[in-house]
Amino acid sequence: MVDVTEILQHWYAGRPKVEVARSLGVDAKTVRRYVAPAEAAGMAPGGRPVTEEQWRALARQWFPQIAGTGVRQVSWREIAVHHDRIAALVGVVPVSVIHQRLADEQGLEASVASVRRYVRAHFPAGARPQEVRMARPPGAPGEEAQVDYGYLGLWPDPSTGRRRRVWAFSMVLPYSRHLFVRPTVSMTQRAWVQAHVAAFEFLGGAPRRIVPDNLKAGVCKPDLYDPKINRGYAELASYYGCLVDPARAYHPRDKATIEAHQRYIRSSFFAGRSWPSVTAMTADARAWCTQVAGQRRPRALEGRTVAEVFAAEEAPALRPLPEQPFEPATWSRPKVAPDAHVVAGRTLYSVPWRLIGKRLDVRATAAMVEFYLDGQPVKTHVFQPRGRRTDWADLPEGKAGFFMRTPAWCQSQAGMVGPACATLVGELLAVNALFRLRQAQGVLRLGQRHGDGRLEAACARAIEAGDPSYRTVKVILAAGTEHDGVQLPLHGVTAPAWLRGPDAFGGEQR
Question: What is the pTM of this model?
Fold first, then answer.
């Protein structure tokens, strides 16, 4: 149980109630409850001296339910039974573990706070020293903005009939508590940067310092002294003249103001409401920031609303916005594939084939996609949402022509093989060129497998046989009969069959 006289003595000595609660291991509400009668009696810290006996008398008067000296000896008597066990564990494990083991193994019913006070009184050398927590000093107007993503909940999307997870990008100015909220169903790097641009437009200016969390959209690698900022996020900060100062990993107190607003945003704006679209939700969030969140009267603002303090003191202190809004860019570092294409977003873009196997820096905006090697630009494409975008000039001349699959290229390649091949390809493309273009490509590909000499001979034999087709040329090459004498077609036997030669029939011809 709490020693009331100890609480009163600490408070009367001038220590803040929160500090008294932390040092004694009790709840702050408990300290306020026991100090309230002293304040009602007109007592204040730093007054005339009060002895311990006088405090005990006052405690018995104000709290008659607490017997004796103001201490519930029941807890300490129960704890004292395990004094030797506690002595063996102090300094080896935390006090919370000592309490847990005594509760599990010995059935101790005293609270962990009582055990802490017992250890502090009987084993001062082994008790944990009090941790000194330094709060950030209050910043000047326009000095800082804290940003974070907070989960709002599930939203039934009327357009799809499915429930979607919704997050809220939120930015707060700690000085005035002015708040900006933007719902989103996508937490990509581009969405993160776009939300910042919208927040600066809503505020009418930019703060000098931004304190984000260490999410991947903003911070590539968290580090206490040298965090690696995402390049797109760094471009935004440079454009608006802001310093990005990420909070330390697992230290929510570094951005305590925005952390404290997450539950308020979820309950006041999102809970129990529905919207026909994300666009409507975003518009309502902007109005809510002005009409609801902006009309709050936090205790720290001494009765003034958030909007009043922001308009009077913080808005003039923000950095002015540039004339043109920032164009968000997404950076990535892909590797050039063997087909001389690079993945950027959901699209494949071609780059010069000599860069195959190298890693490029890719900067993608809503209009252009730029490719850099060691800081030097090597290729630029117009942005395409998805699919494949190829500049045939990026591929080797032979490969480019093959993949372009034009009749003119096929005829030129066939002419390089020989006159028979050129004649056969010309006959294929004479009628329905687009429909028979694949056959012409197939004939030329046979030359890569069997050689141009054999292909030329096979084309000549197919023409003499009266069947200049891809299948006939392929069968001739497979049978190896491109240099045999020409036979006349046999009655009832198709050309691909007899072109294999008479030995393939295994019997006497009639």
Answer: 0.53
